[in-house]
Amino acid sequence: MPHQAIPTPETEEKTSREIAAPWKVIVLNDPVNLMSYVVMVFRKVFGYGEQKATKHMREVHELGKSILWTGDREQAETYVYQLQRWRLQTVLERDD
Amino acid sequence: MIEFSLQVESRIIQAILPELGKIYAASQRETVFPFVCPNPLDDDLVEAWENGLAEEGRGDREAVARLMSDPKFAHGRVAVPEAEAEDLLRGLTELRLAIRSHSLAEVSDEELESGEFSLSGRDASERIGYFAYLVLAEIQERLIERMG
Fold first, then answer.
1. Is B38:A77 a contact under the CB 8 Å cutoff?
2. Which residues, listed in sequence order, are joined to residue A69 by a DSSP beta bridge?
3. Which of A16, A34, A67, B146 has its Cβ near the most Cβ atoms within 10 Å?
4. Which residues of A touch B137 (CB under 8 A)?
5. Closest approach of chain A CAs to the CA of B141, in angstroms?
6. What is the mean pLDDT of chain B?
């Protein structure tokens, strides 16, 4: 019978803390996608206005990445999925 | 229906179409954009993530195939139903990523992003690839303008 670790209250608490901690949705720069395309995707996925979407696009272009959204893990994963659907390189990081 | 004429000569479209067809076919066989699941330790989630995105991407590629097989496209005319415009935009992005990977692999990110890219000394595949890359970008720009 395979050994299975029994979760202790400490590990359970750590896991729930990790899930509950805020997560950052980060979009990375790439040389292919057009600026207008990136702005349009940010508006569609996050519902941002033109000005906010453009600000994030410029951050991606000039700094190599931009934090588009911070919040709970499940919603962050949904955003990452939608951004990858539009072929934007996206990573999810815990907000320490 | 969204319709417009490209600002390039028909002979350029006709010159890039065979190359576009080859790259499109190659992009069906290999992934140019990695779908990276944010939870790589969960095998079930990784499988659902990758399969879901691959399945949804099928419609995008079909929209590109319809554009390329439209006889009007060879003459610089783009016509796409509004309901398919987003699929086409995503499909064109994937095709531009494939061109970058196949024909423009020797071009640096900086050259590609700035557009300061000299065609002299480049081989035919790179030159045609670059024209195709620009034509697809124009289609995307014009589509985005019309989608508001």
1. yes
2. A25
3. A34
4. 34
5. 7
6. 89
A85/B90 Cβ within 8 A: yes
Instruction: Answer whether residue A2 shows pLDDT above 50.
Output: no
Count Cα atoms within 13 angstroms, Cβ side, for B75: 4
Enumerate the residues of chain B whose CB falls inside 8 A of the CB of residue A32.
Answer: 93, 96-97, 100, 112
| Reported pTM | 0.87
Tell me the C-alpha to C-alpha distance, in Å, between residue A88 and each of A26, B33, B79, B93, B128: 10, 9, 26, 10, 25
CB B118 within 8 A of CB B2: no
Q: Please tell me the predicted confidence (pLDDT) of residue B30.
A: 79
Helix (H, G, I), strand (E, B) or coil at A25: strand
Q: Quick check: A34 and B141 CB within 8 A?
A: yes
Residues of B with CB below 8 A from A80's CB? Answer: 38
Where are the domains positioned within chain A? Answer: 31-94
Contact at CB, A84 and B36, closer than 8 angstroms: yes
Q: Which of 3.30.300.20, 3.40.630.30, 3.30.565.10, 3.30.1390.10 is the CATH number of A31-94?
A: 3.30.1390.10
| Shortest Cα distance, chain A CAs vs residue B29, angstroms | 17
> What does R_g of chain B's alpha carbons equal in angstroms?
16
**Cross-strand pairs, B3:** B79
